[in-house]
Amino acid sequence: MLNVHKLWMFSGLCVIVIIILYFQSEIARLEDNYRKLEYRLAQTHSESRQFFPKSLAKGDDDLVVIYNRVPKTGSTSFVGIAYDLCKKNHFKVLHINITANMHVMSLNNQYKFAQNVTRWQDVKPALYHGHMAFLNFERLGTSSKPIFVNLIRKPLDRLVSYYYFLRNGDNFRPHLVRKKHGDKMTFDECVERSQPDCDPTNMWLQVPFFCGHSAQCWKPGSLWALEQAKRNLVDHYLLVGVTEEMLDFITVLESTLPRLFKGATEHYLNSNKSHLRQTSSKIEPSQATIDKIQESTVWKMENELYEFALEHFKFVKKKLLSRENNGVAQTYFYEKIRPK
């Protein structure tokens, strides 16, 4: 009799857990739908009260966006959306393929690339993407500048993902053999044995990607590089999102650059693009490993840039979604135009 009573109690608990999980799922789904609706209302309200001269509207066709994507930050998922939308929204997507996957261009290629991107009218509007460091177009004497966007990820998460990616590949090209294929050493074991593949200096990538083409940018632990990366992030990037908030990154871009990203939020939510290129068989590091990595100067600097980018992104996102006391989204419009 006692066993039957326990069985009933266990069954009841299972039912309660299932109900709770179901409602959590429904709440998450409704929050996503509410967020989509909120962005659409903000964008519609803004467009209805603004005046766009014909010359400005035509200028959208000259739009050039460069996404100098940092490896293992969810960039394949984001680029997949752009490739899906480019035909519908009438823009070009171009991959920047640099010899031997180098992240820094030679000086003559920097100049040629800058001139080519700004003058190649046949492919405008366009989104360029590739694993390359930030390039300052002002320094290269171009008459116009492209818009830069990027994503950044927690530095240790990115390193662990890349470590297992080299050994186990991913679900994007599952049959491609990576250069560390067959190596069964875990990340924890690698750190314990002080192997080069898990050395904290390998995290020095997001700072130099935002810092640029200066030699100082690529010196692990350079304070100058970190400060330059922060300045570039604020001064030269339209938007820098974080991998953990990919949806918000996409919806802010859609609201800001609808010429390219119209429909991106809905596409991301209703397609399989949100889960492209997941590293296979990834084992989360132990707390002891995390503590050891976080003692390093490189992790502290990379994490400082990540936290800086996250705070800035939240500020940008909050301003987009902010409401006045009357519940109306922020907008701007022109009035008192004289002479009539």
TrEMBL record:
Give the GO biological process terms: heparan sulfate proteoglycan biosynthetic process
Q: Where are the transmembrane segments?
A: 7-25
Compartment(s) where it occurs, according to its Swiss-Prot or TrEMBL record: Golgi apparatus membrane
Tell me which GO cellular component terms the UniProt record holds.
Golgi membrane
- Keywords from the UniProt entry: Disulfide bond, Glycoprotein, Golgi apparatus, Membrane, Signal-anchor, Transferase, Transmembrane, Transmembrane helix
* Lipid bilayer topology: Single-pass type II membrane protein
Q: Has keyword Transmembrane? A: yes
The organism's place on the tree of life at top rank: Eukaryota
Q: Name one GO molecular function term.
A: heparan sulfate 2-sulfotransferase activity
Q: Predominant location of this chain?
A: Golgi
Would the keyword Aminoacyl-tRNA synthetase turn up in this protein's UniProt record?
Answer: no
- One Pfam family in the UniProt entry: Sulfotransfer_2
- Family assignment? Belongs to the sulfotransferase 3 family.
Subunit structure as annotated in this protein's UniProt entry: Homotrimer.
Q: What is this protein called?
A: Heparin sulfate O-sulfotransferase
Organism per entry: Galleria mellonella
Q: What is the lineage of its organism?
A: Eukaryota, Metazoa, Ecdysozoa, Arthropoda, Hexapoda
